[in-house]
Structures are given as structure tokens and as C-alpha cells.
Amino acid sequence: MGGVARVVVVGAGLGGLAAAARLAATGHAVTVLEQAPQVGGKLGWYGRDGHGFDTGPSLVTLPQVLEDLFAATGAPLSEVLPLQRLDPAVAYRFADGTTTAMPGHLEDVPARLDADLGPGSGAQWAGLLTRAEAMWRATEQPFLRTPLAGAATLARLARDTADVRTIAPGRTLRGLGAAYLTDPRLRMLLDRYATYSGSDPRRAPAALLTVPYAEQAFGSWYVPGGLRRLPEAVAARAVERGAVVRTDAAVTEVLVTAGRAAGVRLADGEVVPADVVVCNADAASLYGRLLPPQAPVRRARTALRRVTPSSSGFVLLLALRGRTPGLAHHTVLFPTDYDAEFDALFGGRGRRGSPKRPVADPTVYVSAPDDPATRPDEDSESWFVLVNAPRHEPGAGVDWTAPGLADRYADQLLATMAARGLDVRDRLRWRVVRTPADLERETASPGGSIYGTSSNGARAAFLRPANASPLPGLFLVGGSSHPGGGLPLVTLSAEIVAGLVGPA
Q: Which region ranges are annotated with the description Disordered (predicted)?
């Protein structure tokens, strides 16, 4: 860009904060505006009576991305925030009663699967991850770390036909998995990774196979004290480099002057002028609500209407008496019929227009860190329980504010957990219920979509909103823009945007 730019960052989620830190470190005058009373976005925290809960992501993958961020902006990550590698990363319980736990190191996985699911299971999974590793090497630099440029991005990926065959652009995650995995339990393990982006494995591209590879090759990590410490540390780094972070500052409009972004207007009428606006709000909110109707972004708005929003989540925060022997950091309780879950989330067989509904027999995710910061004493536990849920869409789908619905569904989930071997109802001190409607209200994510747009459809990744908007001076970071949702990808989006803006 050349010269010091006045940069306004809309939203203090991890993507916005990382962009602020990088841009401030390269000499720009950066102001971050966050509607909530605290930074973090979906990386929230809830505390009560000594119990504490991360209310968003519960593990860190691809720690190198965070190490790159901190190294580029000041003191290294190791001096600021310790990371603890999880081993096992996740424990799984299937409907037939069998269990397995995914080791924290890739080389240990095949033997564990053989022991728990039967001989040959490990070799099948290892074969699949060999393909996943090739996909990772083919896509990491040209896709994950590079701005999205439509056909040009496809051309970069197609620099040789071997890469195209590796990525399998016409195949789904479910379809590619079926070519390697014969055990239905292994197929369930793979399908789960589609939900990392709020997607349906029957429609999501095979390239999502890179997610389990990255998780198992580079490890799953926890931040002692809770992942909420991550955005706090990045915000502190941004301020250290000269950025200003303002909370309780809701942006209601991105201003356009002479055909380029010129600043923002706040809810109280204050105008904050800028040469560059970096939007960490959901792309649907940006293009649908924050930009004036006459803004030159018609094609971006049209493209956004062609993608499927990601699913949301229904959460229970459980304050429990006593401890659970042998409890892993993460536990996943699978249902008998996984497809029924995706039918409920996305309607029918993933077709638009079919009725969406709360999942009757959902996969249950339990995050229970063994961390003194999360409990009042050693004879207590704090569980974050998540199930995938359709977005909040009154009149068009599920109205999560309907009287009694949230509590009835919470009771049903506790009964489901009990039926699958984790009955904590007699240990419950209290519970807090958080629905997709709550998520929408607290994070301004339309319908409570956790990941912005889903990866449903073979070309979904290339339809995701680009980091450089069609409006000069306006850039997008965060899970609803390229390269996608999840902590490492939103952090990479900030790296891409900082590169597009350039140093002062």
C-alpha cells in the first residue's frame, strides 16, 4: 500500500485481532472495534461459583500458525502462552459399545485402532492419511496461505495433473473415505471432520481430509487456563505494537466514499474514518447489513447467496460434583444413525428447502479439561457439552426461542448421554443452556452459524468470500472468509490480509 494507513478492524475475534497485531507491527495506525464487552468473539468464557468453561473452540491445532503470528509481531509464543499437547486427543464411544481413543501422535494411531476396532483398522486409517498428507502438501501453500482468486486459484492448484488427482476435486469426503475404509466406525470417525466446518460429509469436498491429517500430524493442544487466553494474548500483542482496542463499540455501517471504504459508523453515531477497513464480522452481515445497498459488491453478494451457511451448535455448561475416572480431554459419543443427524441439520439429504429440525439422536461432544482453572476444587468437574444443531431461523427453520424448547432439548441430551454411558444427572450442581439464538445474539453470527459458510459442495471452498473484497480498501478476515473456519484458518486469513495491505 505504501505509507501509514489508518486501519479500522471490525470485530475482535481471533482473526481480527491477529490482523490488528500484524498490521500494527508493520507500522499502520490500527483501531479495533468490538461490539461485546470483551475481546475473543466465539472464543468465549463463562465463569460461575468457581466453575469455568471455554464456550467456543476447545483445542488448538496447527500451533505453527500461532507461532508464526507471535514471531512476526514480537516475543515468541512460548514466552507468552504455554501450550499443552493432548494425549489422547479424543476418546470415542460408538453405539455398539466399542471405544477407542485417538493418540496424540500420528505414529501411535494404527496400533491403537487395531487393538480397539480390530486388526486391519489401523492400516486402513493409515492408508487414508497417506492420501491426506499428499493433499495437505498440494494445498497448503497455494490455497491455505494465499489469497483466493477464483479461477486463478484453481489454476494454481492445477499446476500439474498429479496434484489435481490427489485433491480429488469432484469427490466428497464421504465418497473418498468409502474407498479406503470398510469399518463403519472408521467411516464415522472420518465423517466427524466435516462437522469441523459445519458441513455435511455427503456433500463436503474430499479435500477436508486434510483436517484429520493436520490434527494428528501436528497434534491437538490446550491452553492451560482456557483457550480464552489466546485472544487475550493476541489483543495484548496488538496493543503492545500500538493498536487501540475498543470494546462496547458496535459498528452499524461501513462507509463508502468515492468508490472505496472510508471508515465506519458506530451505533452511537460516531464516525471513525479509515483508509482500510478489515472486517472480522460474518461476511453475510458485512454484505447484507453493514455495506450500503449501492456499494459495488453485487457479485460478492450473489456468490454468498449460492453457498450453504454452516450449522450451529446447542451447548450445555455442566457444573458437576465429583470426578470421572479415566475421562479424556474430549469425548465423542456417536449415535447409531449418523446420516439422520445430517438430514436434520441441513434438511432432507442435504437439499435446500427441506425442513431442518433439532437432531433427535445426536453425536455428543464433551470437553472436560483437567485444569484447576476450570473448577472450584479437586472434587468437581466443568463440562462443555456440544451437539450440532440447525441454525436459528424463525419462520424458515427452527425457532430456538420457542417457549420450553431449549430446556426440553437439554433434558433430552442428558438422557442421551446417560444411555451412552455418561450419566451425570445425579452429580449436577447447575447447568447453563446456550442455543443457536444465544450464539447469534452474542456474536452477531447470522442464525448462530459457527463457521460462516459450510463446505457443502465441490466448489464451496472457491465460493467462500475472498479476503480482498470488490470494494477497494475493504478486506475480510475470520471463519466466514477464505480459507475458512477454525482457529488455524482464521489466523491464516489474518496473515493473508496483512500481506494484501502491505507494510507502512
A: 349-379
Domain that holds residue 72: 6-43+64-82+226-307+464-501
Task: Count CA within 13 A, CB hemisphere, residue 212.
Answer: 26
Query: Quick one: 470 and 430 in the same domain?
Result: no
Of 405, 421, 448, which marks where a domain is finished?
Answer: 448
Query: What's the predicted TM-score (pTM) here?
Result: 0.92
Strands 271-273 and 260-266: antiparallel
φ, ψ at 181 (rounded to 5°) = -115, 125
For residue 334, with 0-12 CB atoms within 10 Å meaning exposed, 13-18 middle and 19 or more buried, which class applies? buried
Residues 230, 114 within the same domain: no
Is residue 200 one of the residues assigned to a domain? yes
pLDDT at 160 > cutoff 60: no
One domain, residues 346 and 387? yes
pLDDT tens digits for range 94-136: 999 999 999 989 999 999 999 999 999 999 999 999 999 998 9
CB 463 within 8 A of CB 482: no
Residue 21 above 90 pLDDT? Answer: yes
CB 477 within 8 A of CB 51: no
253 and 211 both lie in a single domain: no
Q: Using 50, 70 and 90 to split pLDDT, how confident is the model at 13?
A: very high
Q: Which three cell numbers stand for residue 441?
A: 445474539
Rounded average pLDDT over 207-224 = 92
